[in-house]
Amino acid sequence: MSDKIAYARHGDIAVLTVKNPPVNALSQAVRQGLWDGINKAEADTGVRAVLIVGEGRAFFAGADIKEFGKPPLDPHLPDLIRRIEASPLIVVASMHGVSLGGGLEVALGCHYRIAVPSARVGLPEVHLGLIPGAGGTQRLPRLAGVDAALDVMTTGRQIGAAQAHDLGIIDVIKDGDPAENGLAYARELLDAGATRRAVSELPLPAPIDWDATFGATLARSKGQISPAWCVRAIEAAYAGDFDAGMKAERKIFFDLMQTDQRKGMIHAFFSERAVGNLPELKGVAPREVSRIGVIGGGTMGAGIATAALLSGLNVHLLEMSPEAGEAARGRIESNLSGALRRGKISPDQHSKILGDALQVVTDYDALAEADLVIEAVFEDMAVKKVVFAELDRVCKPGAVLASNTSYLDINEIAATTSRPGDVLGLHFFSPAHVMKLLEVVVADATAPDVAATGFALGKALGKTSVRAGVCDGFIGNRILSTYRTCADHMILDGASPYQIDAALEAFGFAMGPFAVADLAGLDIGWAVRKRKRAEGIDPRARDAAYADKLCEDGHFGQKTGKGYYDYAAGPKARVPNPDVMPLIEAERAAQGITPRDFDDEEIVRRYMASMVNEAAKVVGEGIARRPLDVDMTLLFGYGFPRYRGGPLKWADIVGLDGLLSDIKGYAEADPYFWAPAPLLEKLVAEGRTFDDLNKEEG
Ligand code: 3H9
After folding, report:
1. What is the residue range of 540's domain?
2. Rounded to the nearest whole angstrom, what is the distance from the C-alpha of residue 630 to the centroid of ligand 1?
3. Does pLDDT of 444 surpass 70?
4. What is residue 422's predicted lDDT score, i.e. its pLDDT?
5. Are 490 and 453 members of one domain?
6. Rounded to the nearest whole angstrom, what is the distance from the C-alpha of residue 64 to the centroid of ligand 1?
7. CA of 126 to the centre of ligand 1 (A)
8. DSSP code per residue over 359-421
9. Rounded to whole angstroms, how far apart are CA atoms 629 and 638?
10. In the structure, which protein residues have their CB atom closer than 6 angstroms to any atom of ligand 1?
11. Whose CA is nearest to atom 50 of ligand 1?
12. Which atom of ligand 1 is nearest to the CA of 57?
């Protein structure tokens, strides 16, 4: 028998203990071990019941995702579950930790299910671009009803033991050791004369309007197709017997396995875990951080302070005056009330945070004992230098000094202190207590344990942290600035902001670039353009000044009620601002451009080509260590659709040679903007992909 399953006899009960750390994924060896274990128990004289229990953190986290995309290996999971269910012995599942995907499907194939109160179950296959493929779509509706089954499958969310009990998924909840609980339960069942039972033999609940539900689910999923296919798989249960339903489920599962969405989502799953695992930081211990200083209590500083407070850290927030301090406290209080309303913190935690975890101060000396200070003041180098000089003066030795700048040179900031090794960038995204992305910007002199501290803080704050090197805009804003420029060029040449937003939202972006600009505030882009013009723009670069005129008239987007769109009816009810197209037309006329038509396909192709080309430069220059670092930056900070995996995964999927030849074609009209990235040319010449680079670095 496979060494992943231990077989033991306890009187007339056989126990199959799963040992496949860290989360008992159902790999081929585990499936074979369970198959052999059931055979052995049936052949073992005197055995009347079988208990399946997981060792370590979980019952089962599901199928082994690492096997996906390879030829499936015997025994297949649906066959194993059918084998378990068909056993004449009583089979009991004792669940703890998570039972997800194939893990819950195994439990549903067992005859009885017991769980500890902290157990969680779910069918998260949609998050991998799939549907449950081992009977989940056929068994769960029979047990819990169609509506509940659809909710669990189409959202992929985990539910707790109590709710799973209410839905009939778990028979008994009992605190204690899962193996002991399971044995006691199996014994009780045997003593009570309980018999084998099978979910697959339960009658089907009443059907629903499948077409309407399929359509509504598809519309809700923003381009992702797997949630809607859960509906079709359940519908198939009604077309024939159980085996026919299983066959239909398996066909949908394998059809989805072939899709680019599945490839993108599994890339996202593994990259999300790899992004914080930097080879250069292996074995480097972070510095201790329990007390944080935040300088500046505007939207960003208050958001950072809120994020730190919500994760249990003490915060000293520094403002310039008592009045500004009160305003900052008000912003934090309002963020915290939101967290309270959404159930993220208890009333107790809420009052504790406001009681003593947050101190608003006006004197730098109050930061003397801080372990880490994050500066979030006005985006101006001279102002930042004054702040860092003060921090250098008051902070204790070994304190980490961080800047939240989005564009400015951290090397220059670090060089003004006597301790550049302690300085790094921690670039949060607004609102900082909500957005998941954190760029950890490692400057030339940043000490490895300071970089490790940035990642440790990100983890404590529940962020996805990405390592970035120093350049204008780091990873995210540098790439944003390029694809945004590409959008501006298309506008000069004939497209409208509304057509561009619509095309990119149809591609899967949460928001198009002009809606994003309105949300972030048009004054931010305006300030960057002014700074770049002051630094001197290359004469070969095309300039688009029409947006400046909106700002000069005081229209900064959502916060002033008008930008590219008019928000008179509310932030979600945007309509085009009628003042915008005349500004664009005037600029085209001034530059002597005759506008031409763009179709949506060309808009997406150009926009994505510019994004991939800049991303390849960012990786080629070492600003991002790996392509996956770019992918996670765009996914977690810029609304890139998860089901496409990230821009560089998307590029691999559509083909790098085609993209490069498009870029070269566009470069004929504008060689400056479209200069191909050397890394992209190299990969195409060698017939390799961005993902090959991820594997080399991994
Ligand atoms: C499925 O079941 C299909 C069936 O319906 C049909 C089949 C025919 N496989 O996240 P963590 C690794 S689809 C392989 O850091 P946590 C993970 O990569 C599957 N590996 O810990 C990481 O490795 P490393 C449906 C897996 O405590 C390590 O385990 N199931 C799998 O924060 C620790 O993971 C899912 O989609 C797996 N299934 O969270 C569940 N799961 O250390 C996906 C984890 O090398 N998994 N690993 O980086 C999760 O949601 C979380 O990992 C879990 C633990 C909640 C389990």
Report:
1. 476-697
2. 22
3. yes
4. 98
5. no
6. 7
7. 13
8. EEES-GGGGTT-SEEEE---S-HHHHHHHHHHHHHHSPTT-EEEE--SSS-HHHHHHTSS-GG
9. 13
10. 22-23, 25, 61-66, 77, 98, 100-102, 105, 124-125, 128, 132-134, 136, 273
11. 61
12. 27
What is the pTM assigned to this prediction? 0.94
Known active-site residue 125: yes
- The whole-number average pLDDT for the span 296-314 is 95
Q: In the structure encoding, which two tokens stand for residue 264, read together?
A: 């993108």
Residue 264 located in a structural domain: no
User: Furthest-apart CA pair in the chain: how many Å?
Assistant: 92
Best residue among 4, 20, 65 to mutate for probing ligand 1, ranked by most atoms within 8 Å of CB: 65
Q: Which two tokens stand for residue 648?
A: 């560089």
Residue showing tokens 């060792």: 55
Secondary structure, 3-state, 553-577: CCCCEHHHCECCEECCCCCCCCEEC
Instruction: For residue range 10-23, list pLDDT tens digits in order.
Output: 999 999 999 999 99
| pLDDT (tens digit per residue) in 199-229 | 999 999 999 999 999 999 999 998 999 999 9
Compute, in angstroms, the gap from residue 25 CA to the centroid of ligand 1. 7
- Place 697 in a pLDDT band, splitting at 50, 70 and 90: low
Q: Are residues 74 and 179 in the same domain?
A: yes
Which amino acid would we find at residue 606? R
What pLDDT is stored for residue 494 in this prediction? Answer: 97
- Rg value, the chain, Cα: 28
Measure 59 CA to ligand 1 centroid, in angstroms: 12
From 67, 85, 125, 505, active-site residue: 125
Which residue owns the Cα nearest ligand 1 atom 33?
22
Q: What is the CATH number of the domain that holds 662?
A: 1.10.1040.50
Question: Which of 20, 23, 28, 66 to mutate for ligand 1's pocket (most ligand atoms within 8 Å of CB)?
Answer: 23
The protein residue with its alpha carbon nearest to ligand 1, atom 32, reads 273
Question: Which ligand 1 atom is nearest residue 270's CA?
Answer: 18
- Same domain, yes or no: 134 and 37: yes
Nearest alpha carbon, ligand 1 atom 40: 61
pLDDT value of position 351 = 87
Ligand 1 centroid distance, CA of 24 (Å): 9
User: Quick check: is 265 in a domain?
Assistant: no
User: pLDDT-derived band of residue 698, with 50, 70 and 90 as boundaries?
Assistant: low
**Is 399 found in the same domain as 521?**
no
653-670 per-position pLDDT tens digit: 999 999 999 999 999 999
Q: Are residues 407 and 493 in the same domain?
A: no
Instruction: Say if 118 falls within a structural domain.
Output: yes
Catalytic residue among 55, 67, 105, 288: 105
Distance of alpha carbon 330 from alpha carbon 336, whole angstroms:
10
Do 633 and 593 fall within a single domain? yes
Question: How many angstroms separate the CA atoms of 395 and 369, rounded?
Answer: 7
- Assess whether 371 and 421 both reside in one domain: yes
Residue-wise burial string across 548-560, b where 16 or more C-beta atoms lie within 10 A, e elsewhere:
bbbbeeebbbbbb
